[in-house]
Design goal:
Number of strands: 3
Number of domains: 1
Order of helices and strands: EEEHH
Largest sheet: 3 strands, antiparallel
Shape: globular
Helix content: 25-40%
Distance between the termini: 16 Å
Strand order of the largest sheet: 1-2-3
Strand content: 15-25%
Amino acid sequence: MAVEFVGIDPDTDRDHCPTVWADTASQEILLQGWKPSPATLAACEARSPANGPVPATEAVVRIPARMISILREACDAVERAQLR
């Protein structure tokens, strides 16, 4: 596993906040974010009826829009790893 820290919410208090990593070995993006409310989770599940409820082994997390550039950076890191 080659996990690289990419970024943290720029408006954070640096404690329990949205964070993004790139695993360049598995070519995956790892996200830490806020848990959605039960109503939001239900709305997400309703929008993808083919998938049904979110399995216990998966999660929906909230990432603020101010982190878009950090998410892009993580995508770029994973994409570069694919080219190696």
